[in-house]
Design goal:
Keywords: ATP-binding, Nucleotide-binding, Transport. The chain is built from 7 helices and 10 strands. The chain is of the alpha/beta class and about 250 residues long. It binds adenosine-5'-triphosphate. Adenosine-5'-triphosphate binds next to strand 2 and helix 1.
């Protein structure tokens, strides 16, 4: 991976708000979130159900637009981009692991993983080679030619993570990426995310599991749409006292 500018955040949220509905049905999913994630940083996002974690992730990945404030990925403000350029940033810079995996049913595991690279103009052969490398990293190289319906939930989840990691994405966003995995496989996946960050990427992961958060450098805690701990300029969450549990 080429060296990124270590002083520029890979992801920056400035006073981001997101409001759904209006009138009596108005919901403030995010209320003025400031957050920066730098190269090499692995951030865990925690908080009660409904506190805005998934909303934060979708805005960071350019899958939704804020009601107010700015989202910047590698210094580029997403709201200033047209659909084509936004799609290109999402493909090249952002790897997104969805809670429900979002694999294309008609494509094999390897084809699902290579799809974003082929859309980006990489040759089919190179894209397949990269896909096989990513599937190997996830411990499932033997499943490359299976279709999603022939895979267990945990296997599909690992394909989805391989798809998010392929192609040197600088920002990996993962919504409960270990949800369908047994604890040993979950730890192995977290080790891969940790290694990606140690190689210069940035990752933000929603998790409910404090044991998984110890792989992170920092825990951002959301409550009722606001960052209540671990945001910009705040010390690491007490959960992380002593770093990432010495697992690195
Ligand atoms: N499309 C939408 N329309 C209306 N309200 C929404 C929408 N998406 C999210 N919300 C509301 O915004 C708030 C934050 O939701 P979000 O899914 O971000 O929370 P979360 O912390 O990820 O929750 P969970 O841990 O249960 O997944 C909730 O009150 C939710 O009901």
């Amino acid at each position: 991976m080429s060296q990124p500018d270590p002083t520029r955040p890979v992801l920056e949220l400035r006073a981001v708000t997101r409001t759904h509905g209006n009138g009596e049905a108005e919901v403030h999913a995010l209320r003025g979130v400031d957050l920066a994630v730098h190269p090499g940083e692995f951030v865990a996002v925690m908080g009660p159900s409904g506190s805005g974690k998934s909303t934060l992730l979708t805005l960071a990945g350019g899958l939704d637009r804020p009601s107010g404030g700015q989202v910047l990925v590698e210094g580029v403000e997403l709201s200033g981009l047209n659909r084509t350029r936004l799609a290109a940033v999402r493909r090249r810079s952002v790897g997104y692991v969805f809670q429900d995996y979002n694999l294309v049913p008609a494509l094999t595991a390897a084809e699902n993983v290579s799809l974003p690279r082929e859309l980006d103009g990489v040759s089919g052969r190179t894209a397949r080679r990269e896909a096989l490398t990513a599937l190997r990293e996830m411990g499932i190289p033997d499943l490359a030619d299976r279709f999603p319906e022939q895979l267990s939930g945990g296997q599909q989840q690992r394909v989805a993570i391989a798809r998010a990691l392929v192609g040197d994405r600088r920002l990996v966003l993962a919504d409960e990426p270990t949800g369908a995995l047994d604890s040993a496989t979950g730890e192995a996946v977290l080790a891969v995310l940790r290694a990606r960050c140690d190689a210069g990427a940035a990752a933000m992961m929603v998790t409910h599991d404090a044991r998984h958060a110890v792989w992170a450098d920092r825990v951002v805690v959301l409550n009722d749409g606001a960052v209540v701990d671990g945001g910009v300029g705040q010390a690491a969450h007490p959960l992380l006292a002593g770093g990432n549990g010495g697992r690195r």
